[in-house]
UniProtKB/TrEMBL annotation:
<dbReference type="GO" id="GO:0016020">
    <property type="term" value="C:membrane"/>
</dbReference>
<keyword id="KW-1133">Transmembrane helix</keyword>
<dbReference type="InterPro" id="IPR004316">
    <property type="entry name" value="SWEET_rpt"/>
</dbReference>
<keyword id="KW-0472">Membrane</keyword>
<feature type="transmembrane region" description="Helical">
    <location>
        <begin position="34"/>
        <end position="56"/>
    </location>
</feature>
<feature type="transmembrane region" description="Helical">
    <location>
        <begin position="62"/>
        <end position="82"/>
    </location>
</feature>
<dbReference type="GO" id="GO:0051119">
    <property type="term" value="F:sugar transmembrane transporter activity"/>
</dbReference>
<dbReference type="Pfam" id="PF03083">
    <property type="entry name" value="MtN3_slv"/>
</dbReference>
<dbReference type="InterPro" id="IPR047662">
    <property type="entry name" value="SemiSWEET"/>
</dbReference>
<keyword id="KW-0812">Transmembrane</keyword>
<protein>
    <recommendedName>
        <fullName>MtN3 and saliva related transmembrane protein</fullName>
    </recommendedName>
</protein>
<feature type="transmembrane region" description="Helical">
    <location>
        <begin position="6"/>
        <end position="27"/>
    </location>
</feature>
Amino acid sequence: MTDFAWLGSVAACCTTGSFALQVLHILKNRDTKAISLSMYLVFVFGVLCWLLYGLSNNDMPLMIANGITLVLAATVLVMKVMNERGIKTVSKKASLR
């Protein structure tokens, strides 16, 4: 690992972790009103491109970080679309019954 390779790992953990926090927030509050659908569409496409780039260069940290981020960002995107179309998801209370 180069002298600053650790910095890339820290950056990957921070950016990927931020999407985990967003998914948890949405699951808890069921509110996606303030999320930009167009931003998430472009972002998911961009992360997919980064993942493909990492695959083409056999860059494991890039593949792992962007693979996880893609799943998390796509989850937010799906929840946003479902909320906009009025598709009800199972609430925590209903799932405990």
